[in-house]
Amino acid sequence: VTKAREGSEADIHALELMFQQLGFESTMKKDPTAQQFLEEMKKFQHAIDAREDFVSCAFVVLMAHGLEGHLEGEDEQMVDLENLFEVLNNKNCQALRAKPKVYIVQACRGEQKDPGEIVGGDNIVMGAKDSLQTIPTYTDILQVYSTVGGYISYRHDKDGSCFIQTLVDVFTERKGPILELLTEVTRRMAEAELVQEGEARKVNPEIQSTLRKRLYLQ
């Protein structure tokens, strides 16, 4: 979490309550520099690998100013998101090998603004699931971005961000596979009416998944 982002405290509070309700242990680093983003991720990895008890899943919430593929540290330097994701992959973190790793990224990915489009019906996307005997390096990862590539991510200076607040509401109100919960987050955000500098805006999260199994939060 980096400072100079009004509303962040509301998001932090909501996330702390959510993880407590879901039975997760949590740790937080405020105002990291770009280098400290990476250092804190490596500390997290070492701590997980050093545990003697079983670890079933890990969440990493990253909240900062940003551009596509990068986050801005307190020192105004950029860190590559892929370098952060790499720390917990199946090669570098044995305790989380073949275990779900969920990244929630609350950050801008550009400066484009979406006024929204008028549609007349719903689109249904069908997908297929493969069964693998061995796992690649980059499986079991779920990345949830607060906005799509190239677009601004909105945050209220008192109430926090639409993304984090909606995600916490859904994760604490509902049960089911996390991808279904995230679909509900996307639906609610798509319906939300945001006003930025007097202009109506739309925003929706983007979910990138290489999960091999259904992940439930309970």
From TrEMBL:
PROSITE patterns attached to this UniProt entry: CASPASE_CYS, CASPASE_P10, CASPASE_P20
A molecular-function term among this protein's GO annotations: cysteine-type endopeptidase activity
SUPFAM superfamilies named in the record: Caspase-like
Any Pfam family: Peptidase_C14
Ranges where the Caspase family p20 domain occurs: 5-112
Keyword entries, A-Z: Cytoplasm, Differentiation, Hydrolase, Nucleus, Protease, Thiol protease, Zymogen
Keyword Metal-binding: no
Superkingdom to which the source organism belongs: Eukaryota
GO terms, biological process: cell differentiation; positive regulation of neuron apoptotic process; proteolysis
GO CC terms: cytosol; nucleus
Location in the cell: Cytoplasm; Nucleus
Start and end residues of each Caspase family p10 domain: 131-218
Family: Belongs to the peptidase C14A family.
Summary of subunit composition and partner proteins: Heterodimer of a large and a small subunit, both processed from the precursor; the mature active form is a p17/p10 dimer and the intermediate form a p20/p8 dimer.
Protein name: Caspase-14
Species the sequence originates in: Pteropus vampyrus (Large flying fox)
Gene: CASP14
